[in-house]
Specification:
By secondary structure, the chain is α/β, with parallel strands linked by helices. It is 38% helix and 22% strand. The chain has five helices and five strands, in the order H-H-E-E-E-H-E-H-E-H.
């Protein structure tokens, strides 16, 4: 990995905090650092010209001791490639855990992403929707209200969140499930508080 490893950095930060707090137990330190689950999925998408392209997606669920996992889904292609992105998503889910804990929000840390950059690649709206819905299908079993609640992030918007919510609702027996996601447009049950990703 050419770039510095973001998850190694996140783990060092946890260990530095443990040093300050006097936490010496190795098992507890690992518990605080390592994600509960990291899901890596392949997403086949039929492109407009008829060929199949395989995308790689991730969902890292770092810690849910304080509440459901919470964190965005980003579409991005960092320089270090797919392996780097996996480590980055793991680190971001860890940082989300600590952000929620510090401000005393009853949520845990999660983060997801697909290795794609819709701003630099020529991807049509239809291809992007098929990719988004395909990703929602792949992570369906691990997300949901009270379980893991994704949100928009880099290069995702309320449109993608609505597609994820719609796909989840269909897979959930056609039960309307607006609580599966945040960052939706107001017309789809979204909040006035925030309508854009960080």
């Amino acid at each position: 990995m050419a770039n510095p490893d973001p998850f190694a950095n996140a783990t060092k930060q946890v260990n530095d905090a443990c040093d300050v707090l006097g936490i010496k137990d190795k098992g507890l330190r690992e518990y605080l650092a390592i994600p509960n689950k990291v899901l890596r999925v392949k997403i086949p998408v039929k492109m407009d010209d008829g060929h199949i392209r395989i995308f790689t997606g991730f969902r890292s669920q770092h810690n849910n001791d304080r509440g459901p996992y919470k964190g965005g889904i980003r579409y991005f292609n960092p320089e270090g490639g797919v392996e780097y992105m996996e480590r980055e998503v793991m680190a971001l889910s860890s940082w989300m855990t600590w952000k929620c804990a510090i401000v005393d929000i009853p949520l845990g840390g999660g983060k997801g992403g697909i290795f794609v950059n819709p701003k630099t690649e020529k991807i049509s709206e239809g291809e992007l929707e098929r990719l988004t819905r395909g990703f929602a299908y792949k992570i369906f079993e691990i997300i949901g209200p009270g379980k893991d609640i994704p949100a928009p992030d880099v290069y995702t918007t309320g449109k993608e969140m609505t597609q994820i919510m719609d796909t989840f609702s269909k897979l959930n027996g056609n039960v309307y499930s607006p609580g599966v996601i945040t960052g939706k447009p107001i017309s789809m049950g979204g909040s006035l508080a925030r309508d854009v990703a960080t």
